[in-house]
Amino acid sequence: MILIGTIFVLVTGGVYLLLQRSMVRAIFGLGLLSHAVNFILLSSGVPGWRTEPITDGTAAGSFADPLPQAFVLTAVVISLALTILLLAMAVIGRDDTLTRHPETGESRQA
Length: 110
What we know:
By secondary structure, this protein is mainly α. It has helices at 2-18, 23-43, 66-92. The mean pLDDT is 80.
């Protein structure tokens, strides 16, 4: 029940932040939604959490399922890269009201 409540709070907070006008808040909302999806993926392997992953003499059905863990690890890496990219784009695009191009020191050959 705690896991379901955590997922609900993360999804609610993520949707609320996505609906804000600030770009940084929308990025944090995407981060919260990605955490909620990670919890949903991990909850698909809950029956494997009954005992320790490797023990002596237990049945193979009680081992932890590695597939949801691999999915979550991949999702964490992808969401981290996406968050970094979006934050960099938010910093670069903050002053996009320029009427002329900034000076770079390069000259154009005609």
